[in-house]
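Long-time lurker, first post. I've been practising inverse folding by hand and with some scripts of my own, and I keep getting stuck on stretches where the structure tokens seem ambiguous. Below is the full token string for one chain I'm working on. Before anyone asks, I'm not after the true native sequence, just a reasonable design that respects the backbone. If someone could post their per-position residues I'd love to compare against what I wrote down in my notebook.
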């Protein structure tokens, strides 16, 4: 049986004002269900790095097919969760966007910090950045330097810009008057493109 789950909004525990998407909430939707295909719809600007990797790791342990579908925005740590769909199982709507950036810290209150605290925070952010870069390198056709440059400038990719396939595929999609689904640029080797519900398979250049 196919089951749909939705990752909408903040990834993490949330707070008084925001209900976050956590590993716990994902597990509650999946465990004990009769599932052979899990469709994970993602519309999230990101959230907590640790929670995002935990969700990715959990989805990777599941014994059935995982499809990840980008809707709206897939940003920050949500792009890691998106990789839980294997090659050919990751799709994004034509008008959705991908957004990558370096990890950052948002202070919750103006608490005083000593130099050692600030240094520890900087080291923690650098480790998170290195972890994400290494992840992208292992899951995409891009090198670390290119990925770091894109993250540093806080880059947003449209669906067409995210395609890592032959130029003909992008042109074909741009000529289409209706929404299609394409695979993002971190799907290498052989790509699958969906246009107006018609499946076309092409080898990457």
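-- Answer (accepted) --
I ran through it position by position. Result:
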């Amino acid at each position: 049986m196919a089951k749909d789950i939705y990752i909408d909004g903040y990834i993490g525990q949330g707070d008084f004002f925001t209900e976050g998407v956590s590993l716990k909430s994902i597990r509650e939707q999946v465990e004990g269900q009769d599932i052979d295909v899990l469709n994970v719809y993602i519309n999230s600007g990101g959230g907590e790095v640790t929670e995002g990797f935990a969700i990715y790791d959990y989805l990777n342990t599941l014994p059935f097919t995982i499809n990840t579908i980008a809707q709206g925005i897939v940003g920050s740590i949500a792009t890691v969760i998106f990789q839980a769909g294997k090659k050919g199982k990751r799709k994004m709507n034509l008008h959705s966007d991908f957004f990558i950036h370096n990890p950052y810290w948002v202070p919750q209150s103006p608490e005083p910090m000593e130099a050692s605290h600030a240094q520890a925070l900087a080291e923690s952010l650098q480790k998170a950045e290195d972890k994400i870069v290494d992840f992208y390198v292992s899951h995409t056709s891009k090198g670390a330097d290119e990925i770091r440059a894109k993250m540093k400038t806080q880059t947003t990719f449209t669906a067409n810009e995210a395609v890592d396939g032959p130029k003909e595929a992008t042109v074909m999609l741009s000529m289409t008057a209706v929404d299609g689904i394409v695979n993002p640029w971190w799907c290498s080797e052989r790509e699958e493109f969906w246009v107006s519900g018609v499946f076309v398979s092409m080898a990457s250049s």
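A couple of notes from the structure itself: The chain is about 35% helix and 30% strand. Residues 165-205 have pLDDT under 50 and may be disordered. Happy to go over any region you disagree with.
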